[in-house]
Specification:
Length: 168
């Protein structure tokens, strides 16, 4: 199923962390192409600790053939490999953050997993890169396209293009 994954980093070599996460993600066994990649955006930190640096954010859309819980475990393993502690305060600065945005039209709500991501329609730093790759898509639980959600968003956060291409 077509699957959207958000990538973010605001510590250290932010672009390097996104590239490393992309490389690790695309090496997973149940991930296939085609791969659609957004541009990289620099975004203001939201609800983070005082003095937190700006984030780099991007979205990848891939074909995923496994179960959502399996993908979540793989993303958490990539985060750990790239220096994110397992016990991490919510919204604190981080080397890498990987979130499942959607997996086809699946809807899951549990203690450890929620698909589609419950706040993606409220966040400019997710919608802007998502609009790069699938602006006309309508996600489960929504009635508007990604482009329309972005256009109607009242989130004032500053989101600027940082890089058009970010493959190594």
């Amino acid at each position: 199923m077509r699957t959207g994954i958000a990538l973010g980093s605001n510590l250290g070599d932010r672009l390097g962390h996104l590239r490393a996460a992309r490389r690790e993600l695309l090496a997973l066994e149940k991930i296939a192409g085609p791969v659609n990649a957004s541009r990289v955006y620099e975004t203001e930190p939201i609800d983070t600790e005082s003095g937190a640096g700006a984030f780099l954010n991007a979205v990848l859309e891939i074909e995923f053939t496994g179960e959502p819980e399996e993908l979540l475990g793989s993303l958490q393993a990539i985060e750990a490999k790239l220096g994110r502690p397992k016990r991490h305060p919510r919204n604190a600065s981080r080397t890498i953050d990987l979130d499942i945005l959607y997996i086809g039209d699946r809807v899951l709500t549990g203690d450890h997993i929620a698909i589609p991501h419950p706040r993606l329609h409220q966040r400019r730093f997710v919608l802007a890169p998502l609009a790069d790759i699938c602006p006309r898509a309508i996600l489960p639980g929504q009635t508007k396209s990604i482009a329309d959600l972005l256009a109607d968003l009242s989130d004032p956060a500053k989101v600027d293009v940082f890089a058009d291409q970010w493959r190594e």
